[in-house]
Amino acid sequence: MLWGTYKMSTLIHRRRRSRGSAAALMSTVSTLFLMPGAGFAQTATPLSPITVEASSDMTCPLEGGEVDKHQIGAKSILGASDTASLLAGQPGVALATGGGISSLPIIHGLADDRIKTLVDGMPITSACPNHMNPALSYIAPSNSGHLSEVAGITPVSAGGDSIGGSITVDPPQPMFAKSGEGYAARGSATTFFRSINRQIGANGNVTAATENVSLGYDGSWTRARESHDGNGDRIFNSQFETQSHNVTLGFSNDGHDLTIRAGHQLTPYEGFPNAYMDLTGNTSNYLNAGYKGDYTWGTLDAKVYWQNAKHEMNFLPGRNTTGHMPMNTNGTDAGYSLKAELPITRNDVIRVGNEYHAYRLSDWWPPVDMMMMGPDTFININEGSRQQIGTFAEWEKKWDAQWTSLLGVRNDVILMDTGNVAGYNTMMSNYAADADAFNTQNHKKTDVNYDLTASARYEATPINTEEFGFARKTRSPNLYERYAWSTGSMAASMIGWFGNGAEYVGNLNLKPEIANTISASAGWHDAARSDWAVKVTPYYTYVQDYIGVDKLSTGSTPGINLLKFANHDSQLYGFDLSGSKSLLKSQDIGHLDLSGTAGWVKGMQMNNGQRLYRMQPLNAFIDLTHRLGEWTSTAELKLVNDKSVTNPLQNEQTTPGFAIVNLKTSYRYENITVAVGIDNLFNKQYYDPNGGAYVSYWTATNSTAAMGALPAAGRSFNAGMTVSF
């Protein structure tokens, strides 16, 4: 599984489907979605029969991987609440600490908006100045049927307006009855407990289907109190609660599939220990429809979607604050996508597509009787809009038994605008002056961006594969990077998704980031690809106009600066190493497998050598798994070197190295699966290098000293059970 990255099903032999009258009806329905847009499909299938060994990939990105569905299920049974955490252990991936369901993935040192994240085909934008509701927070681990990440050399068909890679997570595909079965139904229910934060939760799903129609429901709920670190001390403001409800209606007939999904999520509270504020309400609703169909000329993948989030920040108990300070946002994503795949010959596949993604955001802070925050409403983002119009073409060719290649070009036009702003009042000079300076400028911005990806794979021998590639990827600023306007200490401290307590101001003159990446990969494996494998991937990225920061002034808090987003040419380089080995294969004793990954990344600005924020130090993840019948046990070892070189401008914390051991085991008997596990077996007191500053403790204790690093959770005993029917 470590070696499967963005596999193209153009390699898989598939029979040609005929189109009967029912298929024609489905085709008619599909025309409702045939707008000029493009979709992202990770796999596609040609109509002409091409048969290749199942273990052999066609051209694909040099780095990345898929999370095994059994791994997703096991973590869900043991109470995983953060879908991003399912990516732990994937090559090149790190996680930045957030709330209990809202950590931010980092790929090769590039995080958050620099990564294209698709949830059920929807590019969801975080509707919060602290990015408390990132895309992956809108799908529960229990509803994640497929999760994959692509790093570095990302195909243009995987989306534009990003430079760090792509992550896609999809719910399970609709279930249909087998031919001749007539009717089928299935479902499951799970409950779990985690000791570290007394977390309890439950999730379940049920589906009823005929051969052509499927109706399903998936729901989840979980609640947790504050966590504790390895010393037994509470981690201030780390509690959370969330629930989600999703309905799926599917139609399938003769190679044509139409899936309609709708859902609702409610997160009444979620603490953020590395931020000044907490989430005190987040309600989202979505509706989307996707069509996939086989035609005589190729395949078609279409999507139309809408998602709205209403979000509020304020203080949860424990921050030692008086009064309240509500900050509200309302964000809507809407758009369509369309992708066509054309098998020109047995060895040539052309993919073309177009997509449109519109995002609209209002961010306002109601007045309060506290610290001169009134009598007016603070207008932070006034009906901000960001529209992306993208078009791509991609050519995949298998030259011979050894060489395959992928070449793609893409154009994205980004249109941004926002209305005039205002502070709480005109008595405070910085509100009036900053608002006037912002309002007198032209807010409309148009960026015309171009991407290029070229990669190749060479099957040198039955036990050796070489890969190499180049990518030019572009990302335009988000709404806050361009339009956050106030230099006031309080207002600026509300802007930022970095978990460091620093204060940020936007910049209307920001240029798009342009990342130029070169990467090579060498892999060795046994001829059958079933016993052992090793793969190493070094990479280098030069980012023109990387959006970093400039210092405007020093704050009153030690280590805290007022920073303005600014462009700086930067470079990042590092490597990924991954491997696996089957240690034992016995009918009586079972199978014992060892796998692991290691990585390191370094990033700096070219003009001054300033280190980039959130660079992961040398790290490794080792997994030892034993399987015997329906019994599976896993021991995990996570190793992270100390982080001594940081970005002090952004109050990045130094952290010591650590080693963490996790254990889990599960057993399935008929329709019941029981799992138990221990996280942080030795109750190690440690600090994740991407955990940020311990802001909630600093505010709760009224400290005047510099902020310290946020401690990670201590030992947790976990248990869960799933009943399938």
**Mind telling me which CATH architecture this is?**
Beta Barrel
- How much of the sequence is in beta strands? over 45%
**Assigned CATH class:** Mainly Beta
Task: Report low-confidence residues grouped into runs of 5 or more.
Answer: 1-60
**CATH superfamily assignment?**
TonB-dependent receptor, beta-barrel domain
Distance between the termini: 28 Å
Whole-number count of domains: 1
Number of strands: 30
Helix content: under 10%
Q: List the total number of helices.
A: 6
CATH topology: Maltoporin, Chain A
Oligomeric status: single chain
Shape: globular
Structural class: mainly beta
> Main sheet?
22 strands, antiparallel, barrel
**Rg over alpha carbons:** 25 Å
Main location: membrane
GO molecular function, one term: siderophore uptake transmembrane transporter activity
Family: Belongs to the TonB-dependent receptor family.
Keywords: Cell outer membrane, Membrane, Receptor, Signal, TonB box, Transmembrane, Transmembrane beta strand, Transport
Descriptive overview:
Belongs to the TonB-dependent receptor family. It is a multi-pass membrane protein. 6% of the residues lie in helices and 50% in strands. With 725 residues, the chain is mainly beta. The strands form 3 sheets. The chain has a 22-stranded antiparallel β-barrel. A 4-stranded mixed β-sheet has the order 1-6-7-5. The chain is globular and about 75 Å long. The chain starts with 20 loop residues before the first helix and ends with a strand. 52% of the residues are buried.
Structure characteristics:
globular, four-stranded mixed beta sheet, Maltoporin, Chain A, mainly beta, disordered N terminus, 30 strands
